[in-house]
Design a protein that fits this description.
The chain is α/β, with parallel strands linked by helices. It has 19 helices and 14 strands.
Length: 450
């Protein structure tokens, strides 16, 4: 393992030699400079991992050197050495950007512990940068799979809204990738280096919702034995993603509206509001307009959240994306070494995908794990209920005439037939067609079916 390079800047040669010896004995590589000017030249030339500098030096003192180093490299680590009793100077150095300080006289152990802590912090910072870069790479727009016209419209809106700071409402069925879109918006926005906090509103018990969202102070209620930081406070400066927003209680909807309007958070039990610099992206698989009509969702909150509404189409409305998604998941689970037989693509395009992209991902993962061939997946590797869909379609006896067929007319007839079979019951008709009631209603309106 390569030794850390430490630059030591001190005009006292005897103290400088002692510190150098102690650090080198601990395994560090140390270079010395006898003045602030020499230290600055050495910093520019060698870019050391850590700088230790005395404060009191002629001409360019340690504070001036610190300020210049931070100007050149804002993330550089600097430890300052100050005389006993000069704590005010140490505080000034910390405000200027010093990582830590040592007061003379200091023991060898104190020196080594301070250096070790500084370098450990530097390692964490580098790891954080690498993680941030990985996130930015993962959620680039071109990593969201889809070449259909429907998804291109989504991409166009997402690219534009990422540059703004407006609230976004993502609407779509479960499994369509609403959280992935929310992450893409955040990690391509000016807030990308701040937190992205995802909250599933349907998964939080009702009596804990307010505390979970906004936090509480000690003693606010029975069992509040310490302060709690809420999700909005954790997301400060970044983005909060409120999934399944339709499941939020009406009284909490009013408090969320206040956060959006006033940019303030009211912690449970506190009289002092906290500033809220948070972008809100909400998502739902329910029809919020219908929820409003039924009195279960606030109209004023709806319009605050849906400044930019984005509908994520279900997979059955973008069947041309299925081959792209299959190839993407094969690379994910097979490391780029697997392919699929042509029949696999045909069978998967015939399926209605009630679970959308999430279901397709699970199907491909299962097929990869259970495949009988080393280098490819065959239709026999697919789950039984997927393969049976092809048989059901064949059993319908539908023949395409030489002049072709209008798919929408066929779909309209199938919907009408399902409604007749279900006696007009929309829920039962939706089950017969393998779609949600919301999708059925959308299709009925589209085709003018009452």
């Amino acid at each position: 393992m390569e030794a850390h390079h430490i630059l030591l800047v001190d005009d006292d040669p005897s103290l400088s030699r002692v510190i150098q010896f102690q650090l080198e004995e601990a395994g560090y590589h140390v270079s010395r400079a006898a003045s602030g000017e020499e230290g600055l030249r050495s910093f520019k030339e060698h870019n050391p991992g850590l700088v230790i500098t005395d404060i009191k030096m002629p001409r360019m003192d340690g504070l001036a050197l610190l300020a210049e180093i931070k100007r050149l490299a804002p993330h550089a680590l600097v430890i300052v050495i100050t005389a006993h009793g000069s704590i005010d100077t140490a505080i000034t150095a910390m405000k200027t950007g010093a990582h830590d300080y040592l007061c003379k006289p200091f023991a060898k152990d104190e020196l080594l512990v301070t250096v070790e802590k500084a370098l450990a912090f530097q390692g964490l910072m580098r790891e954080n940068v690498h993680l941030q870069e990985a996130l930015l790479q993962r959620f680039r727009f071109d990593n969201i799979v889809g070449g259909s016209e429907a998804m291109e419209r989504v991409f166009h809106i997402v690219r534009r809204v990422s540059r703004a700071d407006s609230s976004v409402l993502l609407e779509g069925e479960s499994g369509t990738g609403k959280e992935l879109i929310a992450q893409a918006i955040h990690y391509n926005s000016p807030r990308q280096k701040k937190p992205f906090i995802a909250v599933n509103c349907a998964a939080i018990p009702e009596h804990l919702m307010e505390s979970e969202f906004f936090g509480h102070v000690k003693g606010a209620f029975t069992g509040a034995i310490q302060d709690r930081t809420g999700k909005f406070e954790l997301a400060q400066g970044g983005t909060i993603f409120l999934d399944e927003i339709a499941d939020m209680r009406l009284d909490l909807q009013g408090k969320l509206l206040r956060v959006l309007q006033e940019k303030e958070i009211d912690k449970v039990g506190s009289r002092v509001p906290l500033p809220a610099d948070v972008r809100v992206i909400a998502a739902t698989n329910k029809n919020l307009k219908q929820q409003m009509e039924e009195g279960r969702f606030r109209e004023d909150l709806y319009y605050r959240l849906s400044v930019v509404p984005i509908r994520i189409p279900p997979l059955r409305e973008r069947l041309e994306d299925i081959p792209l998604l299959i190839q993407y998941f094969l690379r994910e689970f097979g490391g780029g070494r697997l392919s699929a037989d042509r029949e696999v693509y045909e069978v998967l395009k015939d399926y209605h995908w009630p679970g959308n992209v999430r279901e397709l991902r699970n199907v491909i993962e299962q097929a990869v794990v259970l495949r009988q061939r080393e280098d490819r997946i065959h239709v026999s590797d697919l789950p039984d209920h997927i393969r049976s869909t092809r048989s059901e379609i064949n059993a319908l006896g539908i023949e395409i005439p030489p002049q072709g067929i209008v798919l929408e007319e066929l779909e309209k007839e199938l919907i009408a037939a399902a409604l007749r079979k279900a006696g007009g019951n929309q829920i039962e008709a939706a089950k017969l067609l393998g779609i949600t009631r919301q999708t059925l209603i959308y299709r009925m309106k589209k085709y003018g079916l009452s």
